[in-house]
Design a protein that fits this description.
Elements (H helix, E strand, L loop, with lengths): L19 E5 L3 H16 L7 E6 L3 H11 L3 E3 L2 H6 L5 E4 L6 H10 L3 E5 L6 H15 L5 E4 L6 H11 L6 E9 L16 H4 L3 H17 L3 E9 L4 E3 L2 E4 L2 E4 L5 E3 L5 E8 L4 E7 L8 E8 L2 E6 L5 E6 L10 E4 L20 H18 L7 H19 L5 E2 L8
Keywords: NAD, Oxidoreductase
GO molecular function: nucleotide binding; oxidoreductase activity
Protein name: Putative dehydrogenase
């Protein structure tokens, strides 16, 4: 992997010319991001609403069909040409993890702002190179964001606000689960998410990364060490079938290929602020469609969040009168809550796609105000280091492993 030495200034953007965006990839995440770029200016004030200028995909016929469906006028089949175009301001990377580093490095060198899906890369080395490039680019006014979209859930953002306000007191426990079931059928066809050379890892990086980011972000503490195990329940899967959502159905008699990533991850963690954590990520939890959960217990109270009830937050205040103590359910749809003042009347909830709308609103606000990006590549790098430490611990019989020194034997 090499980085271009040619350095460009960021393309000009102003109220007279909207931010022009190139979307790289047109599958699940590409569609979600496209929806967000188009919807955000209808709800959030923007001096210059973004413009979806270009869709990039490897196959011309499929990319053209996607562009017609998504109403994007131009396509490219080589992301390099998109990065080189003078009229592109933002490169939005929605491709598998093995492509993130090369695209992001080239885009930053070309003076393009970058929004990159999570996890940031497939290795710590790639993530470090991307972070260093982002730091150099920031000195020229070029911003780089990582798409940890669950941060934009109003209820989770409210949980972070409660921690910052001291409502939970000293943080003692962090408990995070991300439970899905779309791989429970052993005949679900093989796809790129099950191939290590493309995805980097399985449930660990695909959904566990969200848990790590949310836990660190909400608690305000960093994970400093882990003890982990990874497991693959189904070691081969059909090579042919029909895709449906994240999974699909196999063709009868189709040959099978190897699964080279974890199906499930479980680890305990120590945080640098004194808290201890328990994490679980799996795509084999029958009946759990997208149970992204976070509970934090402090000396003065607790919060509990589950994305399957994404418009609510459970909050316990230990300072309440004992006769009235108990978890209360906060409906996070009021104008005083994060993001919600731009949407519907109180009680009219939001959905999954709206997280990406919030992400675009935050990205555009940062770019137009020329302020720091969050989460930036440096924050995403901390997650990558935790994922690496988890894998190192699992290889070493679950031995406690330092995030900063994962290859040492603590």
């Amino acid at each position: 992997m090499t980085e271009s030495t040619e350095v460009h200034q960021p393309a000009p953007s102003s109220a007279e010319r909207p931010l022009r965006v190139a979307i790289i990839g047109h599958a699940f995440m590409g569609v979600a991001h496209t929806h967000a770029w188009r919807t955000a200016p209808r709800f959030f004030p923007m001096a210059a609403p973004p413009e979806l200028a270009l869709l990039v995909g490897r196959d011309e016929a499929r990319t053209r069909a996607a562009a017609e469906r998504l109403e994007i006028a131009e396509i490219e089949t080589d992301w390099r040409r998109a990065v080189e175009r003078e009229d592109i301001d933002v490169v939005d990377i929605c491709t598998p993890g093995n492509t993130h580093a090369e695209i992001a490095l080239a885009a930053l060198a070309a003076g393009k702002h970058v929004l990159c899906e999570k996890p940031l890369a497939n290795s710590v080395a790639e993530a470090e190179a991307m972070t260093a490039a982002a730091e150099r680019a920031a000195a020229r006014g070029v911003r780089a964001f990582c798409g940890f979209s669950y941060r934009r859930t109003p209820a989770l953002a409210l949980a972070k606000r409660f921690v910052e306000e001291g409502r939970l007191g000293e943080i003692r426990h962090v408990r995070a689960q991300y439970l899905q079931d779309w791989l429970s059928d052993a005949d679900t066809p093989l796809n790129w998410r099950l191939e290590k050379d493309k995805a980097g890892s399985g449930a660990l990086g695909d959904i566990g990364a969200h848990s790590v980011d949310a836990a660190q972000w909400v608690s305000g503490q960093r994970i400093e060490g882990v003890s982990a195990m990874l497991h693959t329940f189904v070691e081969t899967r059909p090579l042919a079938g029909t895709a449906q959502g994240l999974g699909g159905s196999a063709e009868a008699g189709a040959p099978r290929g190897p699964v080279t990533v974890d199906d499930a991850a479980a680890f305990t963690a120590r945080f640098d602020g004194g808290a201890i954590g328990v994490f679980e990520a799996t795509r084999f939890a029958q009946g759990r469609r997208n149970a992204n959960r976070l509970e934090i217990n402090g000396s003065s109270g607790s919060i509990a969040f589950d994305f399957e009830s994404m418009n609510t937050l459970e909050y316990f205040d230990a300072r309440d009168d004992q006769a009235a103590q108990g978890f209360r359910t906060i409906q996070v749809t009021d104008a005083v809550h994060p993001y919600t003042d731009h949407w519907w009347p109180v009680g009219h909830g939001l959905g999954y796609g709206d997280l990406f709308v919030h992400q675009v609103a935050d990205v555009v606000a940062a770019l137009q105000a020329d302020t720091a990006a969050h989460p930036d590549f440096a924050e995403a790098l901390t997650v990558q280091r935790v994922l690496h430490a988890v894998e190192a611990s699992a290889r070493n019989a679950s031995r406690y492993t330092s995030v900063d020194r994962p290859d040492s034997q603590d």
